[in-house]
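quick one
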Amino acid sequence: MLMICEIFHSLQGEGPFTGRPAVFVRLSGCVPPYCEFCDTPEALEPGTPIKAEKIIGQVCGFKCPLVVITGGEPFLQWDQGLREMSQILVKKGMTLQFETSGRAGIPEDVNGIVVLSPKPGKWPSAEMLSRAHWLKPLVGDDPNETLNAIKNSGFPQDRVWLMPLGRSRKEQLRRMPVIWDLCIRHGYCLSPRLHILAHDRKKQI
Ligand code: SF4
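structure w/ iron/sulfur cluster:
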């Protein structure tokens, strides 16, 4: 059984797969202390226990080859059945993208593309960074700490996507021009939060 918050079909709004249709499996639970700006507070609730076979059936029903495994913090449930479910989805031909803050660790045997999205003030260890394929830090009003952390980590420049912190369209658009300039200056990519730009605070399932 996995503790699930929601499963839905939408477009990936962030990072290297921005704009691509994807099935989202949002697992419940995160690592305290929780972020004050958390935009998925529903994922901090205990969630609904669902058997892996049922989740796989639901995911396959959308007939969409990209599956985003997110949370909360999905890797909290890696040893509780997520590993096995991921292996089956890969065998069925799905591409998996894991969205993680890195706070529950990143398993050595992860079998998909890891997009590591550190939150301000919660920078992951060098070991976790070495297991990530893409880095997508959230950037708030003071980007210097994040920029220094990226630089010190030695993470490849062309695999970094800076993403504005912002739970609303207004908040996101306010930060975007500054981040735009930073991306040009440092050679990083800019990740919008397309779902928020398109739908603002409304749910976009
Ligand atoms: S890591 Fe993500 S899910 Fe967890 S509290 Fe922070 S924003 Fe919310």
